[in-house]
Amino acid sequence: MVPVGSVLFVLETAAAGAPATHAPAAAAPVRELVGAAAAPAARPAARPVGIDDSKVLAVPSARRVARELGISLSEVAGSGRNGVVRRADVEGFAKSRTAAPKPAATQAPVTGVAAAAPRAPAAPLSFAPGERETRIPFRGVRRKIAEAMVRSKFTAPHFTVVEEVDVTDLVKLREQAKSFAEGTGVKVTYMPFIMKAVALGLAKFPMLNAHLDEAAGEIVRYAYVNLGIAMDTDQGLIVPVLKEVQSKGILQLAAELADLAERTRLGKVKPEELKGSTFSITNAGNIGGTLATPIINFPDVAILGVHRLMKKPGVVETPQGDRIEVRQYMNFSVSVDHRLADGADGARFLVYLKKLLEAPGLLAL
Description:
alpha+beta
């Protein structure tokens, strides 16, 4: 184990025909020693990392973006705990640098090895205005959604697992629950049953009910379940959070979900009700679509996609043998952050969810 920033070795290079000179003070600390070695002339030179960069406290994603954009971390002010530089700090610095034109620098003479120019940020797309187009300012909720989706997709490596679930018995139970709750004014949908099954599944597979604290270098697992429920509104996709789901019954979840959904649609949801999710669910089944690969609601580890209810022929096992009858099915897909969980974890979670929803009486246990 070597402290970060320590010089591991000094690589001396010289122009053709010239004797090598010793210049250890100008050498850059080597960051990565894994992988096959290649001749220096066979690959483009990387942006040198100054000694100041190695001393700067920064999360790995911030260092990566800084390398890609040719930014020295020593120039970036950190907004994280104890001044840690986060990815957003680097991106913000890059935007401000792009906005403020710099005077042209005099090109330094290069001898021996060609110097690699830092990669410039991609130019933003621009379209000429026309008479038959409508221009809507890209800001507010729509812009926040875009920023959250990009951050999630480019920070967490996603993988998705899909399972087909026979929900015939769940459909019957939900009809009974609707009749039972008619006098209480509570509208019972399929979501409270799914939410309860998710809470039980997360108790069994806690690696999906977690966050990654990058600054501290720790995985945080939760002993409670706060479900973010993605909702389609006139303002765009909003994800209010229903808290402590593990301790609530089906009818209580139905009542709280209906209230939360109504206030979200009316724009009356409280700011604190949009924070603190440990897992999320997105349900577009009432609109359509048989399958999707949802984007994780960062910084959650996973998100469950709930898809359209379909009638299909299915094979039913009976004491007299197998028979084919009309059954009701839903597809469920779970997208998972592969940094914190593996494919087997996502598959086992979905299989457990399938077991609960195909025999929904188990939810009472």
